[in-house]
Amino acid sequence: MKNQVNIEEAKAKTPTLTIEKIKSQAPSVFTHSKNPKMSEHYVHIPTSKILEDMISLGWECVGANEIKRRAKRSEDSGYQKHMLRFRNYNYEIEGGLFPEIILTNSHEGTAQFVFRAGLFRFVCSNGLVVADKDFGLAKVRHMGYSFEVVKQAVDNILESIPNMVKLVSKCQEIKMTDEQIAEYALAAQALRWESNPEYVDVDTLISSTRKEDNGNDLWVVFNRIQEKIINGGYENKDGRKVRPVKNFSQNISINEGLWKLNEKVINGEALIEA
Fold first, then answer.
1. How far is CA 256 from CA 74, 117, 217, 249, in A?
2. How far apart are CA 54 and CA 247, in angstroms?
3. Would you say 262 and 218 are in contact if contact means Cβ atoms under 8 Å apart?
4. Predicted confidence (pLDDT) per residue in 5-14, tens digit
5. In whole angstroms, what is the distance from residue 235 CA to residue 24 CA?
6. Do 217 and 173 meet the contact criterion of CB atoms below 8 Å apart?
7. Is the model's pTM score more than 0.90?
8. Average pLDDT score over residue span 239-244
9. What's the chain look like in SS3?
10. Is the model's pLDDT at 139 over the cut of 50?
11. Quick count: other Cβ atoms within 10 Å of Cβ 141?
12. What's the rounded Cα separation, in Å, for the pair 28 and 226?
């Protein structure tokens, strides 16, 4: 039986976006005309069509974003890469987790519709992208698009939920030493600050901000560090405040990199190349 209190509180923390709100945050979702630069063979399917189909499948849109265009490329505005986050509260996972689907697309002919598996962590209102090459990833071409194809992509994501649960369980079972946690933190921050991998003090990254994240198992260590790297809000070694990651492509990349680190820990592999 689902925890209705958690569901209602989760909805309050990240409310379902209205169509008008999505339009204000990611207007390119609703671009209905083909980019003039594209050939006559390009099939234009507006992302708003997938939005409609996802809603009909029971998935609520809880996030919307798009790549901002510089003035010199303003002619491409409306066709740039964009992202929608969907959540379905009928699939609550034990431990205050809800599965999400992260959809990315562009109308420039440079990308397909890409569906990635994600998790929403209720305790911190934080989204985690868990897709990788083995599960939780589905692509849909514009050509041949149909409701049935989208439904199959969603079903593929839902079939990956047991694998997500197994990964979370494995992470919870692994206890890490202080040395391993420090190594994980160094490897993790290099995903965002590759040119300056010691940009943030390790102790800052691994410190816990809530009692639910106390401990030394891989799951809580991952959540502590992921939240710090993505959300910022603390001082780096130079005393400057770390800004949150606002570019959704970078957010996805960092999250996927962190899950790869988790897998390395599970498999006993080195996190930092010698």
1. 31, 10, 19, 11
2. 23
3. yes
4. 567 877 887 8
5. 32
6. yes
7. no
8. 91
9. CCCHHHHHHHHHHCCCCCHHHHHHHCHHHHCCCCCCCCCCCCCCCCHHHHHHHHHHCCCEEEEEEECCCCHHHHHHCCCCCEEEEEECHHHCECCCEEEEEEEEECCCCCCCEEEEEEEEEHHHCEEEECCCCCCCEEEECCCCCCHHHHHHHHHHHHHCHHHHHHHHHHHHHCECCHHHHHHHHHHHHCCCCCCCCCCCCHHHHHCCCCHHHCCCEHHHHHHHHHHHHHHCCCECCCCCECCCCCCHHHHHHHHHHHHHHHHHHHCCCCCCCC
10. yes
11. 11
12. 29
Scan for tokens 């079972």, then name that residue: 173
Structure token digits, residue 85: 């986050």
C-beta of residue 236 within 8 angstroms of C-beta of residue 200: yes
Give CA 236 to chain center in angstroms: 24
Q: Please give the structure tokens belonging to residue 226.
A: 């992921």
pLDDT band per the 50, 70, 90 thresholds, residue 56: very high
